[in-house]
Structure formats: structure tokens, C-alpha cells
Amino acid sequence: MDGPTIPIPAFGERYPRDGEARPGRVASIDALRGFDMFWIAGGGALLSAFLGIFVDPFPDWLRYQLSHPDWEGFSAWDMIMPLFLFIVGTAMPFSFAKRIERGAGKGDLYAKIFIRAGVLFVFGMMVQGNLLEYNLARLQLYSNTLQAIACGYVIAAFVMLNFRVLWQLLAVVALLAGYWGLMMFVPFEGKPAGTLEPDANLARYIDALILGRFRDPGTTYTWVLSSLGFGATVLLGVFAGYVLRADKEPKAKCASLAALGIVCLAIGWFWGWRPSDYRFPIIKHVWTSTMVLWAGGWSYLLLALFHLCIEVCGWRKPAFFFIVLGANAIAVYMAWNLFDFHHIGDIFTGGLVQNLKEWMSGDHAALAERIGRFIRDLAAFGALWLICLFLYVKRTFIRV
């Protein structure tokens, strides 16, 4: 093993044109991060409310894509969490290179890594682990996306700092194959090996064994053993970061990202969808290896699309809407989950919604209800976006 193997360009605060010599943030990363945050911070509800004005009820295919499958399968809505982890990995080569260029040693990097992971774990307990109830009987130690990011980040950082790129790729293979082997060939608690049911699988058993009464009893999602998959997802994002930092033309970067996406989708399909004795179903609840590849493939393609639109086609102004959110992603996530922005929005639109319902009462009451819901969701999201815009204009970026 060698020392840090990351190339070292600086990582400033300005958005340069792709290929400029001066350092800067990559606009496509912030835009894609903001795109993901849009769905986390009310975008899904906003879209549903808007479509509900014109389509009632939703067709089955649309309802499926805007919700999580009960167990096996994958929908567009399932992309939100793995894309978040993927983007964390994409930014890591840039952020680590910045610290190395400033003289940070491996010890300094590890200190920052573990501090960040610890803060994310606490934030996760605040958002979803009932920490702010100050009731030990209600506390859940590991139950949130931010905590999955923390574990995936630590795993990916260790691999990045100690192995060259080829070995990093082999580490992803080891994580995915190792998790598959454990889930499919290790019996547990009287259950046969390969049991993959919502209430009976090895990952769920490990959670109960390690977390005990501090696990979330009301969900089929798993965390401790699934951290192997979290690490693999973040590492897939790391490879995307290497592509974006390479000395290549923007079109070549887009092509490389698209190729990586197609390869991941193909492997994920053969391993997860195609009938086989070694099939590992795509199940987001337990973060199966095939889900990592399937979601990673779409993440690569989305990043390629954003990079194409922004760096090749020059569509930077439309991307600004998402960049504002992506520049303060953790703050957006925490704010949306800890505060009720509908109350803030109601200050400005509550009277309008009430008058609309009164004016459209009778035969149009149902339509008025749907329009009112859309206005409330729009006002709530708008309040959050304007706060993010203010922070962006003031060059205030809240980081962990």
C-alpha cells in the first residue's frame, strides 16, 4: 500500500469552464446534488400535487415510480438515497486533493473523516433517530440516510487513501461479492441460507443483534451489514470524481461516465433481474449488491447528462436552480426534516388557499383541494429555496 494516491488540483469556490487551468468547483456535481435535494426537500410532493390537478387518479405506472416498492424491484423514487451517496463519493477526490495540496497528512485526513462521520451520525439521530426527544427508550442509533453516508464515506475514504485505483476497483468487487456471499450463503437464527424476506434476512438479523433495542422496529430497511453496500455506492461515485478530474475534453468525460453507467446497469441486470442460481434480487431495503450497481448505473448516466448540459451545451443558467440547493445540501436536508416549511409558506399563501376553496366550493371542491395542496407545497419549497438563494448570494456554504 502507498500513501495518498489522489491527484492534487485545488478546489476553490468559483465555477470555471470545464478545462480551465484555474481551480474551481464542478458545477455539474453541485447541480446534480441539488437535483437530488429537490426531491428530498419537497420536490416529490410538489410534483405529485401539480400532476394531481390534471390527473386523478394517477395511473399505476406513475404511482409506482413516485413511491418505494414494498420489497423487490426499483422505482425512480428509489434513486434518491443512492444518488445522494454516489454524489458524496464524486466530490471526495476534489475535497481530498484540496486538503492534500494544503499540506494535510494522512493523520489529518483521517481526523477530518471521522469527525465528519460522527457529525453525520448525530445529525441522522436528530432527523430520524428521535435524539431530540431525549428519551432513551425511543432512541435509534442507526436508521437514516446521513448515517449511511457516514459509513459509506469512511469505507470509501480508507480505500482511497491506501490503495491505487485498480485496487479501489477490486475493493468495490470485494464489497459487492462479499455482501452477496454473506446474504445468500450464511444461515441465521434457524433460517436457511439465502432467505430474503422483509422480516427474515441476514442483514435484519445482524441489525437486531448489534443495535438491539436501539434499532428502528418499524422498518424493513437494514443498516449495519448493509454498510458494505453503502461503501460500494460511495466508491462508485469516487470513480466518477476521477473521471471529472481527468485531463480530458468535456465530451470525453461524458462518454466515460455514460460507459461506466451502461456497464453497471448491464451487470446489475444480469445479476439481479435475469433468472439464475446466483441471482441476487434488486432490493433497496437491504441495499443488495445488484441495487448498488443498478442505482450506480443510473447515477453515472445522470451525472453524464448534467455534465453534458452544463459543460458541453453551456446551459448554466437553467442549472442555477439546482446549484443553489446543491451548494448547501446538508443544511437543506436538515432544515427540511427538522422544520415545517408549510407553516412558513402558509404565512404568505394560507389566505389565498382558503379563499380559493370557498370560491370553488360545490362541484369543484375536489379540484380546489388539489390546487390548494399544490400552492401550499410550492410555497413551502419556495421558502426553503429562497433561504438557500440568500446563503448562496452571501457565499455562505454550511459544510460538515
Brief summary:
The chain is mainly α and 400 residues long. It has helices spanning 27-54, 60-65, 80-101, 106-127, 145-162, 165-185, 202-211, 227-245, 250-272, 289-312, 316-326, 329-338, 341-359, 365-393; strands spanning 196-197, 200-201.
Based on the model shown, name its key terms.
single chain, 400 residues, 2 domains, two-stranded antiparallel ribbon, globular
Number of helices: 14
Return Rg in Å: 22 Å
The portion of residues forming beta strands comes to under 5%
Total number of domains? 2
Low-confidence stretches: 1-23
Number of extended strands: 2
Indicate the overall shape: globular
What is the succession of H and E elements? HHHHHHEEHHHHHHHH
| Helix share, percent | 55-70%
The main pleated sheet reads as: 2 strands, antiparallel
Mean pLDDT: 90
Label the structural class: mainly alpha
Output the strand order for the largest sheet: 1-2
The first-to-last residue Cα distance is 29 Å
Summarize the topology.
Blueprint: H1 27-54, H2 60-65, H3 80-101, H4 106-127, H5 145-162, H6 165-185, E1 196-197, E2 200-201, H7 202-211, H8 227-245, H9 250-272, H10 289-312, H11 316-326, H12 329-338, H13 341-359, H14 365-393
Antiparallel strand pairs: 1-2
Helix pairs in contact: 1-3, 1-10, 1-11, 1-12, 1-14, 3-5, 3-8, 3-10, 4-5, 5-8, 6-8, 8-10, 9-10, 13-14
